[in-house]
Amino acid sequence: MARLIRTEKEVEGRYTEQWIVVEEDVLEQWPAGPRGIVGRAARRVDGHERARGQATYTADISLPGMLHAAVLRSPHARARVKKIDLTKARETPWVRGAIGPDDCHVLEREPSFQGAPVAAVAAQSAERAREALDMIEVEWEVLEPLLDPDEAVRRESFTDEPRLYARGDVERGQAEADVVVEGEYRTQTVLHNALETHQSVCRWEGDTLEVYTSTQYIWGIRDEVAETLGLPPDKVRVVCHFMGGGFGAKNSPGDYTFIAIALAGQTGAAVRCALTRREENLASGNRNSTIQRLVAGARSDGTLTALSGEYINAIGWDGFSGPTYGPMEMLYDCENVRTQTFGAKLNTPPNAAFRAPGFVEGTFGLECVLDELAAKLDLDPLELRRRNYADHDLVEGRPFSSKNLLDCYRLAEPHWARRKEVRARSDDVWKRGVGLASQVWYGGGGPPSYAWIRVGSDGRATVVTAMQDIGTGTRTAMAQIAAEELGVPLNQVRVELGDSARGPFASISAGSSTTPSMGPAVRAAAADAKRQLIEIAAQRYHLEERVLEIKDGQVISADGGSWPLEEVTGLLEDAQILGKGARGPNPTGMRVLTFGIQVAEVAVDVETGEVRVERIAAIHDVGRIINPLGAKSQVEGGIIQGLGHTLSEERLLDPQSGGTLTQTLDAYKLPTIADVPEIISEFVDKPDEHLTNLGSKGLGEPPIIPTAAAIANAIRDATGADIHSLPITREEMLRALRAAEERRREPERVGAPPA
Amino acid sequence: MVELRVNGHAYELDAPVGRTLAEALRLDLGLTGTKVACGEGHCGACTVQLDGVPVLSCITLLHTVGGREVTTIEGLAEHPLVDAFVRADALQCGFCTPGQIVSAAALVESTPQPTSEEVRHAMSGNLCRCGAYPRIEEAVVAWRG
């Protein structure tokens, strides 16, 4: 039965309280461990389609008469458009449409970051459209940009109200500490760089606006476009069958969608607006840089007595101030915690969610400061973390729905125990060491989310739901869940998704929420279809429903009878069984979180500052694993993105003009296959008994969270140098080595006799 | 006009100044398996083979390939590497995958039993933002199944 409840909804650590309609989750969880299909490695159901280049991405959509847009973006970080004249552009023969700040709300008269959209044209080809941008005459008044985050805080230029959190008494906690460590940590701005750039193709089909777009959230696009244009939501159809990566940056429509819509309105044609790679690196979002001023205090036995952090998120002109404070508040059992967080509003490109926003940055600071504390206390870093294990959630004062971080620590021990042998492989130039870092994150998903299942007369099933598979393998996971519950082989299940007009509401693919939100709905739909199939079978074979089951595509009875499922479904002729399912509520009064630990092994060339990561072992606790093969890929992918964040990636701005210097993929250094270390991934794989009919949590984000800190801590183990800033370029590494060397000499100088 | 062969078929294509091979494949021939992700030769997504040698089609001008044989992912649909990639889960979003397979196909043609090191060297020009690299390495090393 549907129930109306007032509940918290969480995406990427942001909670909102709202009314939602939920349905009861009546299914019992499956017992722990691999089943016939769920919990066993499955190859991607759309793998061949993608590998053969047959999958149609938004980039491949070509509609009859389609025009191509190009966008004039502000070359200045802060400016005023004194005059703009589109006449010449409009008169250019191959130009079909041109729009300026008066024609579309995303086009700006006072651009406040380099790359802000100001005008756009549509032409027969992207090349022609780009040429026509030169025909737009703009008179700029260039203004002084605000670029320094500390200065923004002084001037109270904020994107959000400053956030203050406190529990206990931090001053008292520091006074009680035997050792106090203070440090300033900095993380850089990094760019998502999904290989399919942000893009949309829009056209009017009768009174319906069709939006083909590369998105993580079909329904969010539908709602925002409809609301902006004043249309009924169902007059906007959003389609995304395959998408080429998002990592958090494709949760909203973006300027390109509204530009394509405006130009489609003006020209009466379908219009594609696709960002170039350079625009992608300029104006499609980023993980903002942070400044973290941290203090940690502990007693000599390692008990944390105080944690405090001042966090400055350098947001840019717009965006959201992410939970950089989250790990400090949530990871450890510390009574006295205070965090203060500022979202600095600057004349730089807006941020966007990027795989565990805030937690990647905050974990770097917290887990590095913890290891510095361990060094001063002469305590084993893993032991320090064990001693401060939180057995309940200290922020909300709630029990965890499940937490198996101690199991993760136990599984990490063999990897951690390698450090003696790893260090022994050091020589005069290459120093080797091992470091670890722990992780906490959300990832419980939530209602509402719906799925349907259609079973045809051939016994094949189709899952229908308007979700999206952004490359994480959700099509495959949903097919596994449906096949498991229905009792049919995996290859008998298809998953149809990606179209808001052809399936029920499905959740966003962000916040590690797709599997925990959608999986239970798909299982419920499959159970509903199975119930109906058994009803028919019972009548057909004159047996009671309770003695019938479906397994491996066979209807079987308790007394040993067995009939092919097609014999039952064949009775339907061209009709179909329709099962429907909904995601039930989250457990009330509990915190649903994910946990993990990573152990990194590094080699540092102390002469050149080169850092090589040689091995990373990752152990994560995300409830039941649906597809161990896909899960392994998620972990590896997260770690590799984390590796780029740690060692090579950095968006560089011109400090005077605020212009982005790293707009191309030769300047912005993504990891390549040659940079990848040995990666070992392990899972606790225990279903969360309080969470849904599956007990599964999300895995998209956890693996990127602890990587940077684990590597930095391994560098300290290898060299004694404290890393306080990302990325760890050779310059940063050499600076840290020099600082460590000076620290070592300091006591000598103090004690030395005067010369 | 330029005459060339693509996946064994002969074509005659209009080659205006600046037309790239990637544009011709995707827009004129509808062979959208070849992806363009950066458009300036940095990422490898647009990789095709020109007489068996991997090239970046987004920075290869169409008029320079007259008389040549082009092999795209569509021409490699039945190559054992496709199965090898799916088996090893060597793809996530899949946008870079056609380019990866085209590069790998050229590698295994000249080096039928590539070592991990050879794979890492030959494939380092094909970026994968999802980070499927360990699986790609596994797929190419074990491409024959």
Short note summarizing the structure:
The complex is a heterodimer of chains A (755) and B (145). Chain A is an alpha+beta fold.
Distance from first to last alpha carbon of chain B: 43 Å
Main pleated-sheet profile of chain A: 7 strands, mixed
Radius of gyration of chain A: 28 Å
Instruction: Report the count of strand segments of chain A.
Output: 27
Q: What's the mean pLDDT score of chain B?
A: 98
Mean pLDDT of chain A: 96
At the first level of CATH, the class of the largest domain in chain A is Alpha Beta
* Oligomer type: heterodimer
As a percent range, the share of strand residues of chain B is 5-15%
Strands of chain B, count: 5
Structural domains of chain A: how many: 3
Helix content of chain B: 25-40%
What is the H level of CATH, i.e. the homologous superfamily of the largest domain in chain B? Beta-grasp domain
Class computed from helices, strands and strand pairing of chain B: alpha+beta
Number of helices of chain B: 5
Write down the overall geometry of chain B.
globular
Shape of chain A: globular
What is the CATH topology classification name of the largest domain in chain B? Ubiquitin-like (UB roll)
Model description:
The complex is a heterodimer of chains A (755) and B (145). Chain A is built from 19 helices and 27 strands. Chain A has three domains: 2-57 and 445-582, Aldehyde oxidase/xanthine dehydrogenase, molybdopterin binding domain (Aldehyde Oxidoreductase, domain 4), CATH 3.30.365; 61-144 and 195-245 and 250-283, Aldehyde oxidase/xanthine dehydrogenase, a/b hammerhead (Aldehyde Oxidoreductase, domain 3, Alpha-Beta Complex); 289-444 and 589-746, Aldehyde Oxidoreductase, domain 4 (2-Layer Sandwich). Chain A has 755 residues and is an alpha+beta fold. Chain B has two domains: 2-73, Beta-grasp domain (Ubiquitin-like (UB roll), Roll), CATH 3.10.20; 76-141, [2Fe-2S]-binding domain (DNA polymerase, domain 1, Orthogonal Bundle), CATH 1.10.150. Chain B has five helices and five strands. In chain B, strands 2-1-5-3-4 form a five-stranded mixed beta sheet, sandwiched between helices. The longest helix of chain B is centred in the C-terminal third of the chain and has 14 residues, at 97-110. Chain B is globular. The model of chain B has no long low-confidence stretch (mean pLDDT 98). Classes of the chains: A alpha+beta (755), B alpha+beta (145). At the A-B interface, helix 1 and helix 17 of A face helix 2, helix 3, helix 4 and helix 5 of B.
